[in-house]
Amino acid sequence: MSETTFPRVAVLGGAGTIGTTVIGAMRGAGWPADRIVAAGRSGDSLDAVAEQYGVETSTDATAAVLGADVVVTSVKPQDMRALLAQIAPTLPADALVLTPAAALPASFYESLLADGVAVVRAMPNTPARLGKGAISISPGTHATDAHMDLSERILSGAGLVVRVPEEQIDGVSVVSGSGPAFFYAVAEAMAAAGMANGLDKELAEALAAQTLIGAGALLEESGETPAELRAKVSSKGGTTLAALAAMEAAGLQGVFSAGANAAIARAKVLGEELQQG
């Protein structure tokens, strides 16, 4: 494969959870190790990344971006301003900046980097670590279809990649970003209900987890909608329908709506705080 086929990618924050997820996705998709460099502060952590994935490493972000075609900025949002100030002087003008950091809009990056630098925002979730993620990508002002295609190639090994306009990222974050935590909360509630009805904790948690895993797999593979599958389990006059009716009466939809609204409100506040520095 040529270098054009596999552009050089610098993953800043490459020893962190998101950074290693991106590296793992690329390597799993066949990206050559010598076309990836992981940069971070800790040499020991980077050694572990090098051992696992065979990639180059560096403790100098400025050096890592030299000659890079793509720079993945997988650091915490509160550290982003300092990182961009560090790499801006040496960032290649035609490089793509792919950022999985939450809350910060593409305009934040564009204001701190050279004019015309292409920025693509990504919103991954934690199952991406297993290649089962749901990841959205959104173009900044200067990002072209080619930049979006390249971003999708880089992230495709982490799961489903969808393209959305940046103004829809808050909606994505509610469904897939925070969604895994909602899923775990439902699993906890199901297990608690089982324990309240005589099951021991280990059994209740195992049954709840496997039930949700199986239901998710059926939803993915059957081609049926959630409503259609729910109806198949809910026999008229049966126990499941009685349970669902009780949940609706207790405000099930309102609970999720309240959670979504709270998450979006917090994201807006966080974004404003981070942009103010």
TrEMBL record:
Its main location: cytoplasm. Keywords: Amino-acid biosynthesis, Cytoplasm, NADP, Oxidoreductase, Proline biosynthesis. Gene3D superfamilies: NAD(P)-binding Rossmann-like Domain, ProC C-terminal domain-like. Residues 166-268 form the Pyrroline-5-carboxylate reductase dimerisation domain. Coiled coil: none annotated. It is found in: Cytoplasm. It holds the Pfam family P5CR_dimer. GO terms for molecular function: pyrroline-5-carboxylate reductase activity. It comes from Demequina zhanjiangensis. This is Pyrroline-5-carboxylate reductase. Residues 8-101 form the Pyrroline-5-carboxylate reductase catalytic N-terminal domain.
